[in-house]
Amino acid sequence: MKRKYTLFLLISLLLAIVSCSNKAKTSGENTENTTKATVNIPNFNADSAYQYVKAQVDFGPRVPNTTAHVACGNYLAAMLAQFGATVTNQYTNLSAFNGTLLKARNIIGSYNPENKKRIAIFSHWDSRPWADADPNKKNHQKPILGANDGASGVGVMLEIARQIQQQKPELGIDLIFLDAEDYGDPGTDESWGLGAQYWARNPHVEGYTARFGILLDMVGAKNATFRYEGYSQEKAPNINQKVWNAAASLDYGRYFIKEEGGRVTDDHTFINDFAHIPTIDIIHTEANGEFYKNWHTIKDDMEGIDRATLGAVGQTLLQVIYNEK
Ligand code: AHN
Ligand code: ZN
Hints:
It contains nine helices and eight strands. By secondary structure, it is α/β, with parallel strands linked by helices.
């Protein structure tokens, strides 16, 4: 009798503990569900991005001081407006290394402009006047179409604009199309990124800053590889980590390779140095340190553009943008 009673007590106690711990577990899960706000990350549409790349290339080479350049600038500003961004145009004359005065236009699309917490995304929208890396010397004086070198980054950004219009991220976003990047002299670092230099010294909003910046450069080639660029690693290593980790989490590790690439003078150099915004460069760099194979050749056309790469870069950026609090 006594033993039976003890056993009964023991079982009751055990049941009480189990039910108690169940309760604790259930309520714990509930708390977690309500506090850990599940971020819904939009799906980047690579076909859409591809069309935005093609639309730019269809204007022809977007060399400053040409009608194609003017027409494409108008197209980009109209697209940002259509996607609900506050558009700012910066018109300025910039002096190129060879003395040419470039009628330049930086185009900025801002979302949630009153938010102090911001991310800036950059790409250059002009294309190079000279295919001076072409294997055929006869092409060295011809302009390039810049499907990858220029249009790819802008195309990805326009699709991001379309996505942001449909679902607002927590931070304010600035999509910045920089002009006159590619009018440079290969031997002179400061002759490149003229639009970026102008913007970094005269931002579209007085006292502008951002938590970080991301520059896109040649992000559309088939099987493109992106490595940690040297200047980005020096100035914004945590942003490199953030982006490459986001890519890995989406299974894009074959594009975003966790290796050091070379050091490149590009728009982000001036954004880091003059605007002091920690900014990385996502730039196509091969294992041997070379750029995209058709870089500054007349073959930088739509044939070199692959939707899958645009998609990998675009989805990675959305992952980064929408996870930022
Ligand atoms: C230099 O060649 C010094 N920088 C390369 C920047 C660039 C040009 N990216 C695309 N086109
Ligand atoms: Zn270039």
